[in-house]
Prior knowledge:
- The chain has five helices and five strands; from the N terminus they run ββαββαβααα.
- It is an alpha/beta fold.
- The chain has one domain (2-128): Protein tyrosine phosphatase superfamily (Protein-Tyrosine Phosphatase, Chain A, Alpha-Beta Complex), CATH 3.90.190.
- A five-stranded mixed beta sheet has the order 1-2-5-3-4.
- The termini are far apart.
- The mean pLDDT is 97.
Amino acid sequence: MTFLMECLAIGELADGESHPPVDAILNLSQFDYASPRIYKRIYFPDFEYMQDLSMIGQCTQFVREQIAQRHRVLVHCFAGISRSSTICTAYLYECGMSFAEALAFIQAKYPAAQPHEALMQSLYDWYKG
Length: 129
């Protein structure tokens, strides 16, 4: 798990299951688990265009709401490579960065971040529409 900002962390499934030092968890993996923290699971397949683009808004809304309450949020998927970095990119885009700036910011702190091109296309289409 890596903190991108004081209030936002990115990671993989094992990070979410290991009781990380956060207040809220957004789980994007196909695996559900019990957590004593504020917890939300929104699953969408990796390596595919998102069929329901509104899931992007659901994810960023959860992150925004938790951060607004001064909660530290972990966004994770299974491997911590594509889905989690896609949603963190979306959140930073909503904070005023361009997609390129957001991804560069994430990769500078978390080099494993590599959103799949189909998921990035989903982001472009969600924000364009």
